[in-house]
Design a protein that fits this description.
By secondary structure, this protein is mainly alpha-helical. It has 5 helices and no strands. It has one domain. The chain has helices spanning about 1-35, 55-85, 90-100, 110-140, 145-175.
Length: about 180
């Protein structure tokens, strides 16, 4: 059991680290793409704005890895709850709440751990959606010859975000059924 607990803790630490790296990646790529270098007088090169097309793919890559780790964490918690670990006794209640929520029914007295996972998932997805939307607005407001590429990359980012979210929900339902 201790080994499973350590593994869950490592997964959670990895998710936190990846979320930090997502912010660093977005900030760095955005700074390069917008031309925010040390030289304040330097003009933003048209080609450097093309680098902004990488941001949606970086966001989705990090989101996909985090969601994979969340699936692994959930399956480990379910395993521990099924074995009868006293530390994870609350997880049995969370499993019931998760199954009820995945069926679309309303959960009375929502259990904390399950809803924390839901908030964590929501933060990942909404941050990616906000960044994609911001890139579309940027491309529409500051017209450049690469605006269409930025908009296309953001739309593809939205589509991939939905694809990852659907796959995640399918896998979570499969885990909860077993």
């Amino acid at each position: 059991m201790e080994e499973l607990r350590r593994e869950i803790t490592q997964y959670q630490a990895s998710i936190i680290d990846l979320t930090k790296w997502k912010l660093i990646l977005i900030g760095t790529i955005g700074a390069v793409g917008l031309g925010l270098t040390g030289d304040g007088a330097a003009k933003v090169s048209e080609i450097s704005s093309l680098i902004l097309c990488v941001i949606p793919f970086a966001c989705n890559y990090v989101d996909a890895i985090c969601k994979n780790l969340q699936i692994k964490t959930c399956s480990l918690r379910l395993t521990m709850a099924q074995v009868g670990d006293k530390v994870v006794e609350q997880s049995k209640e969370n499993v019931v709440a998760a199954k009820v929520a995945l069926r679309g029914e309303r959960v009375e007295n929502a259990l904390r751990i399950f809803w924390i996972f839901t908030l964590e998932e929501m933060v990942l997805t909404l941050s990616t959606a906000t960044i994609n939307f911001g890139l579309i607005l940027y491309a529409m407001i500051f017209h450049s010859q690469f605006s269409n590429f930025i908009i296309a990359a953001s739309v593809i980012g939205f589509l991939f975000m939905f694809y990852v979210e659907i796959l995640y929900r399918v896998h979570m339902k499969r885990i909860m059924r077993d």
